[in-house]
Amino acid sequence: MEGKSGKQLIVVGDRVLIEPEEGEERTTVGLYLPASAVDKQSVQGGRVLATGPGTPIGAPTELDEEPWKIGSGEARYLPVQARVGDFAIFFRKAAVEISFEGTEYLVVPQAAILTLVRDGERGSEPVFQL
Question: Is the four-CA dihedral 118, 122, 126, 130 of positive or negative sign?
């Protein structure tokens, strides 16, 4: 993700950069909750802005009997499920707040994401519709 000054914010590993929901929350019965009440909840939601490459894994061929052999040198990753534009619901306590060029973001490990809401795109993943 590129900032205003041309600097890049690079997300590493299996982490996801999220723009958190701000302001008042609405309950299922239509009540609006102030931010102080929302802060006490254990989960939070936000829009995915960037993702890391995923969890690094070794190639199965690297587990042979000759560990001194030089491998291909290319890193391989198990990709992150979240995509840019998804709405993520995640454990609030696992998120780390950062500030980049005056804007607040959350960095969340993939393991802390409970669900993803993706707009209408159908891929190879099973989709649960409400």
Answer: positive
All structural domains of the chain, each given as residue ranges with its CATH number in brackets, are: 15-53+82-117 (2.30.33.40)
Contact 18, 95 (CB under 8 A): yes
Residues in the chain: 130
**How far is residue 54's CA from residue 59's CA, in Å, rounded to a whole number?**
15
pTM: 0.70
pLDDT averages per 10-residue partition of the chain, 130 residues? 79 93 59 60 89 82 60 77 92 92 93 89 50
Report CA 74 to chain centroid distance, whole Å: 24
